[in-house]
What does this fold into?
Amino acid sequence: MIVLGIESSCDETAAALVRDDGLVLSDVVSSQVALHAPFGGVVPELASRAHLQNIAPVIAEALQVGGLPLSAVDAIAVTNGPGLVGALLVGVQTAKAMAMACNLPLVGVNHLIGHLLSGFLHRPGETHTQPELPFIALLASGGHTALYEVRSASDVEQLGQTRDDAAGEAFDKAAKLLGLGYPGGPRIDRLAALGKPGSVVLPRPLRRKDSLEFSFSGLKTAVAQHVAKHGKPQDEQALADLCASFQEVVVETLVDKALAACEARGVGRLIITGGVAANRGLRARAQQRCRERGIALHVPPPQACTDNAAMIAYAGACRLVRGENDGHALDVFSRSPILGAAPGSVASRRYRSSRLPR
Ligand code: KG4
Ligand code: ZN
It folds into this structure.
């Protein structure tokens, strides 16, 4: 089965052709980063308008790169939440129109499930070992930071999430305070490689080992206080040292909690995904700590970790092979049931894809 995936939940317009075993035939992403950069974050209305302009050419390119006509597509999968409603509507309405015109099955995909299954994607000619189930997944992106136990594509349990800012949001806000521009993650990552971690003392949030929750807003405040007291670092080395100190705290927190989740669940496999998984410090530290603990670590390549439509097509294929089809009644949702755990609760709700809002 060949699935056309469509993603428009935030600031990336994306389309991909993926086979139901995870083979990626095409994976086209049109980023709006330059459009939103002057505002220091995503502006919802601008995002919707840019999706409207980009979606048809992006889908056409996905078909062209995949070398297949639309008639070769067996089904359509589209992100229907969580995300910006106006942005989601562009993808969902396009997918509905195509499904109706071509008489194809249509499934909605929870964006977070897409991220969690991104380890199953592989590209032609690539040697790939399918992740073994169950595994613990750390999802760290600009909008989400949470831990899950993934038992199958339709049986995912959230173990803990951030009480406030997501990890990527913390990178972006810290970078803004330091005048580094948007998005901040890659810029802090580059500078941190040149700095000395620990040279600026910053608080380690929610260190308790029994909590699988995260909190990054205090860390951002600590950076703001440091800048208020000492001013923005004037020389390159002082800036690099502050970036390295900030990044070390985020990385240690993410790795500590991910390993605690593996231990709590007795699961020896960990996947790290989401935009922050591109962070070189996080990749290196997770590899080292997992090796020490005998945990098998899988970090998909950066293009599979950041927002893309290939992960949506694959997660959609998993629903389609189970015989699910949302059809024309498909609706969008802004907040996910998978994020439904009350702040402060340790373990949380079980999510089954059959409970997806339609
Ligand atoms: O997954 P993603 O592309 O979009 C969301 O669903 O949010 O993640 C984007 C986030 C941004 O906050 C960005 O700053 C962060 O991922 N990011 C990084 C790096 N590359 C992207 N954070 C730290 N280090 C990086 N190298
Ligand atoms: Zn995402």
Summary: The first helix runs from residue 33 to 36. The radius of gyration is 20 Å.
